[in-house]
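Q: I'm writing up a methods section and want to include an example of the input and output format. Could you take the sequence below and give the corresponding predicted structure tokens, formatted cleanly so I can copy it straight into the document?
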Amino acid sequence: MKAIFLDFYGTVAHEDDDILPVIYKQVQATTQVECTTDEIGAYWWKAFSTLFYASHGSQFTTQRMLNVQSLAETLLHFKSELQAESLNQEQLAHWRNPGIFADSIPFLHSLKIPVYILSNIDTDDVKAAMKAHNIEVAGVITSEDVRSYKPRSEMFDEAINRYGLQRDEVIHIGDSLVSDVQGAQNAGIKAIWLNRKGKLKPQQITPDYECKDLGEVVHMLEAWI
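A: Here is the clean output for your methods example:
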């Protein structure tokens, strides 16, 4: 094992899960159609996912733009007069200064091999978040760098080529079964699923390894490095 590829949000730093329900309630309070907050969240996620999976190559759009566009579509669908650009400011601010998991810094300090961050969030946002928590790693590759998002292979391929590694010399760690686990495996790289929330694993996805936190990852890596 010569290097580690590491997801950032949901793995090292907190996702925006606490902010999203607040946005759903604001939309619900201003909508002209009867709906639940769950329905608003589901529609927004579907709208975002449709744009997300079409965003690569010449059609690439930054995460911030995808967020605003999908939220605007959601507001239009539920007939709310709120403006997406102002409604999601707290969410976008979170990306630049998220909370950090207690085991993240000790994990990074314990490693004796290079760590490379592979993130779907925009370059400026993830670098701001890393600066906020004094996180230093050997390198960072984002969706903006490769004009593509995990689980597509471009980000993994770029990391392998840029840092002069072989696919059997690295392992990717991330919290998303699709973006991180399937993405890495499809690129020929083994993956550790960081299952912090104790989620049930669907039958169609099989991580190479599963850990409940980064402390458990450390113990696993000690046997390989």
